[in-house]
Design a protein that fits this description.
Blueprint: H1 3-28, H2 33-38, H3 49-60, H4 63-79, H5 83-106, H6 129-147, H7 152-175, H8 181-202, H9 207-212, E1 225-229, H10 237-250, E2 257-260, H11 268-276, E3 281-286, H12 288-300, E4 307-311, H13 317-321, H14 328-337, E5 340-350, E6 353-357, E7 360-364, H15 365-372, H16 375-381, H17 384-392, E8 399-405, E9 411-415, E10 417-421, E11 443-448, H18 453-465, E12 476-481, E13 483-496, E14 499-519
Parallel strand pairs: 1-2, 1-3, 3-4
Antiparallel strand pairs: 5-6, 5-14, 7-10, 7-13, 8-9, 8-13, 10-11, 11-12, 13-14
């Protein structure tokens, strides 16, 4: 969130909050009695045409309906990797129960009305619940239009429609005699307070700020990016395109080269096409498999452009270890305005050939877990699918591994898993290699052969609580080297960055220091 944006939203939120408190104080001092008497609603019957229309409108704009709708939209936004928007919608949704608590505490009785038995009459009169809810609903409508990169005309229409509904809801409550003029104003002030607080908390640009900064950049950077994306990772590709094109245009970049992966090619040919086009940046929107394929091609090229991550998978392990935001909008801003940093790539030889990886490779248990993960289930419960696969492999059979570090003497031991890592943190925020850094020129090794299931639990607990050092867990052996060779008697299940391949008896991993440049924040702790 930019400082200007944060100041604007915080000022608006505090300003409306102070106005609400001042208005409430005036109400309790009876200073607003004259206003309510002067704006006394007309006497209409519950069966009159006006009364029936007003009651129908009150049902449609009921706070419970707005609360449910806002919550659902927040969950959908989170699924679409709009995490700032999801946070803002969550804060906005809390405004409706907050209004109920305030109304209960103030306990201002509703005026006498023919509609006293209506479901819309439940709760205290001040602040007016329907007005608070529709104010928040109008904010949601406008904010969604902007967050989905709709055109300015649609945003304007949404603004007009949203606040017309607010006015109609306020008029309906007043006509029905369920709220006085002062109750209506209080409801609007509370809704505006919560709406701007939501903008502030989520870092979402308000319509006021957007209009203040409207217009395209004065000049062009002359730069062009390619976006290599996995279409299976996005429920709404048109939304992704709008978000990317809007940010690229506002940054002064040339139109993006869009390259879609396929089931047969997770990104290799697409990367070569991006290199042939001479782009200045390769953005990757996909999971760990897509990131590995693109990284490997870039590491092989002479003087390749930097890579930027738009996390869209379940693990997003490289992004987490580099502290790249998981929110798509924040990741795009970092991609277009951030600075690249060099990271290591690991060249890996195995029975099936030679490949590169940037996260981790392993033989044994982890590869079997990766192979047993149900892809359809992973789309529904995400990282929970890995936990279910782990349960299915709770009692793995050990294998004999001969390990050689650099030019040292080979050593032999039993293991259920041998994991080679370029970074330290895996799914669930577990730091398997506490000292691993993606740019330290070393590759890390973990050999696991615990005696009991509780040893795994102890490893996970210490990792999550920050007590884990990589040296104090029984059944686990750790090492660092520039070259690691693992040999087994029989072929063992094998995986690279979460993608399983044919079993192997030999794994030779050699670090290639600084072979890839990735746009990332300044060095910090991994995103857990």
């Amino acid at each position: 969130m930019s400082p200007t944006r944060g100041r604007l939203e915080s000022v608006l939120a505090i300003g409306f909050a102070l106005a609400f408190l001042a208005w409430t104080r005036l109400l309790h001092s009876a200073a607003l009695t004259g206003l309510d008497q002067a704006l006394h609603p007309p006497d209409i019957g519950s069966r009159s045409a006006v009364g029936q229309v007003a009651e129908a409108l009150a049902l449609v704009t009921h706070p419970v309906a707005v609360l449910i709708g806002t919550t659902v939209l927040g969950l959908v936004s989170y699924k679409n990797r709009m995490r700032r928007l999801s946070l803002a919608l969550g804060v906005a949704a809390l405004g409706i129960p907050l209004q109920q608590v305030i109304a209960w505490r103030l306990d201002r009785p509703a005026p006498a009305s023919f509609f006293a038995d209506s479901i819309s009459a439940l709760g205290g009169a001040y602040p007016a619940g329907h007005v608070t809810a529709t104010t928040l609903g109008a904010w949601v409508l406008v904010t969604l239009a902007r967050a989905h990169r709709r055109g300015s005309s649609r945003v304007l229409v949404g603004t007009v429609v949203g606040y017309t509904v607010v006015c109609l809801a306020a008029a309906g409550q007043w006509v029905m005699g369920l709220a006085t003029a002062s109750d209506v104003v209080g409801g609007f002030l509370l809704g505006a307070t919560v709406a701007n607080t939501a903008l502030w908390a989520g870092g979402i640009d308000s319509i006021v700020a957007a209009w203040a900064r409207r217009g395209l950049p004065r000049g062009s950077t002359g730069k062009r990016a390619a976006l290599i994306y996995n279409p299976t990772k996005f429920d709404d590709l048109s939304l992704l395109r709008r978000r990317v094109e809007a940010d690229v245009l506002n940054a002064g970049w040339l139109p993006t080269l869009w390259l879609e992966t396929s089931p047969d090619d997770p990104g290799r040919e697409m990367t070569r096409r991006a290199l042939d086009a001479g782009v200045d940046l390769v953005m990757v929107a996909g999971g760990d498999g897509t990131v590995r394929a693109v990284s490997a091609e870039l590491a092989e090229a002479a003087a390749p452009p930097p890579m930027a991550l738009i996390p869209a998978g379940t693990g997003n392990l490289l992004a987490r270890n580099l502290a790249v935001p998981l929110d798509t909008d924040q990741a795009l801003q970092l991609a277009l305005h951030g600075q690249p940093r060099p990271i290591d790539v690991v060249h890996c030889r195995h029975d099936g050939g030679a490949q590169r990886f940037v996260v981790m490779a392993g033989v044994g248990l982890d590869a079997r877990i990766m192979g047993d993960v149900d892809e359809h289930l992973k789309r529904v419960i995400r990282s929970g699918a890995y936990a279910l696969a782990a349960v299915h492999n709770a009692f793995p059979a050990p294998f004999t591994a001969t390990v050689t570090l650099d030019d040292g003497e080979p050593t032999q031991q039993q293991a259920v898993m041998a994991l080679v890592g370029n970074v330290g943190t895996i799914t669930g925020g577990i730091a398997l290699f506490p000292d691993a850094q993606p740019d330290d020129g070393y590759v890390d090794l973990l050999l696991a052969n615990p005696d009991r299931v509780t040893d795994w639990a102890r490893l996970g607990a210490q990792s999550l609580t920050g007590q884990y050092t990589g040296q104090n867990v029984k059944g686990f052996t750790f090492a660092q080297a520039r070259r690691i060779t693992i040999e087994t008697v029989e072929p063992v299940a094998f995986e690279l960055d979460g993608d399983t391949t044919e079993p192997t008896r030999t794994l030779r991993a050699t670090v290639e220091p600084g072979a890839l440049r990735v746009v990332a924040p300044a060095r910090s702790a991994p995103t857990r």
